[in-house]
Amino acid sequence: MRTFRSCFLFLVFLFVSGCLTHRAVEFVIEFTDNFNSGKLMVTYLDIRSSDQDPEKREADFQELLELYEQDQFLLDQVREGVYVRERMLFSRGDTLIGRFTGIFEHFSLDGNVLDKKENERFLTLELSPQQSIHSDGNILRNGNNILLTWPAGQKKIWFRVTETDPDTARYSMIDNYRAWKK
After folding, report:
1. Cα 175 to the chain's mean position, in Å?
2. Is the pTM of this model over 0.70?
3. Which residues, other chains included, contact 65 with Cβ-Cβ below 8 Å and sequence gap of 6+?
4. What crossing angle do the helices spanning 9-16 and 71-79 adopt, rounded to 10°?
């Protein structure tokens, strides 16, 4: 049994520091023919600041840019088994989106390994009550514990974790992004 393991530190870097939030994060994993490596695309949908003050939102936006532009993120990912090929910030309408793509030899998320057993591939996650999950695989729930499963031969899998907390104030940084792009 071969395990797929690659720590996804960007999630921690992006949203633990500062006041950055997001509506959802989507993972698309495409395996190579022998299923022991693959491509990864991670997309952060609707990146915002939790701060209403325009100056603090600008500071949050600058912090986001540093995360996308500095090499430390790339080095951290290489140590964890992901070679990042591309990082980008872009807008879709009035929504700020962050994405990175890369290749990996092994995959895990927050210490949870994407594994294979017999005819099934599986990943166990623990979600907070303020999160929901969607996937092209089967979703089994036990409270906050989620088991995602896919047929072992499925070449491409995806799942999305959505933040559903209505009490979190989120302020758009799209104007900051547009000013930066000019």
Report:
1. 23
2. yes
3. 89, 180
4. 140
Buried b (16+ CB within 10 A) or exposed e, 116-128: beeeebbbbbebe
Please give the sequence-ordered ranges of beta strands (E in DSSP) within the chain, or none if there are none. 20-21, 24-31, 38-45, 48-49, 82-92, 95-104, 108-109, 112-113, 115-117, 120-126, 131-135, 138-142, 145-151, 156-163, 171-172
Q: Which domain holds residue 42?
A: 9-106+155-181
What does the pLDDT look like over 77-126, one tens digit per residue? 787 778 999 999 999 999 999 999 999 887 766 667 777 788 898 888 98
Instruction: For residue 53, tell me if it sits in a domain.
Output: yes
